[in-house]
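Chapter summary example.
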Amino acid sequence: MSAIAATFRELRRKNEGALIAYVMAGDPAPKHTVKIVDALVAGGADIVELGIPFSDPIADGPTLQRAAVRALEAGTTPRKVFDVARAVKSAHDVPLVVMTYYNIVHQMGVEAFCSAAEQSGVNGVIAPDLPVEEAALYKEAATRYGLDTIFLAAPSTSEARLEKLLNASSGFLYLVSANGVTGARETVQDESIAFIKQTASIIRGRAPLAVGFGLSQPSHVRQVIDNGANAAIVGSRFAEIVEQNLDDSDKMLKMLRQCAHALKRSTRLSGAMEVTD
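The structure predicted for these 277 residues follows.
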C-alpha cells in the first residue's frame, strides 16, 4: 500500500477527510519552503503538494502565477525542488506529491525525473497537462519507482473518460471543482457540488476523491467533504498569505499554521466517504 493510500485509510478510520496543502516550492525562496511546510503540517495538513515552478503554468491563476515568478526569480529549479522534498521528508512523515507540467518531466527525461522523485521521498506526481491517453510510458516508469500517478477530472469530463482516468490513477483522483484556472473563490458553486456528488456516485469508493481549485475557507472544505469528497486541496489561499507577508516571515508562518488548522478542523466535522481497500 502506498503512503498516500495508507493516509486515506487511516483518515477514514478516524472519520476524517484529508487536507492537502499545495505549496509553490521556492516561493519566496527555496530556503523558506521547508519552514512553510513545517507550519502547514503543524496546522494539520495531511498531505503536502509541492509545485515545481514553471514559466507557462496554464492551469494556474494569477496568485500561483505570481508565486511561480517569485520562485523562478529566486533560482528554483526542479532539482532544488527535489532537495526541498528530501528536507521535508526528513522532518515530517507526511505523503509528498509533486505537481509539475510535463515539459519539465520531458526535459529531465522520464527515467531521471522518476528516479529523482523517488530518491527525494516523493510519493506521487500530478502532471495536469499529461493526457491519460499519452501517459503509458510515464506511468510505467512511475510505477517502477513507487510513485502514484494522479490524474485530473473536470466538470466537463464524460463518464466514459472518467472511467479511463480512474483506471489509470493511483493515490487519488483530483477533481477540478470548476472550469478555469486556480484561485481562491468566495463560494463553492452549485455546479461544483453537483459534480462532486455525481463523481462520487460513479466512483463508488473505488478511489479517494480530492477536490481542488478555488477552495479557500473552512466552509468550502466542509461542503466538499459533506458531498462525497475524501480530501480538499487548498493552494492559492496559502500562496496569498505568503505574498502578503513577504517581509515578515514570523507572521507568515503563524498565519499559515492558523489557516491550515481552521481548514483541517472542517474535515473533522463531517464523515469522509468510505473507500474500499
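To summarize the output: The radius of gyration is 17 Å.
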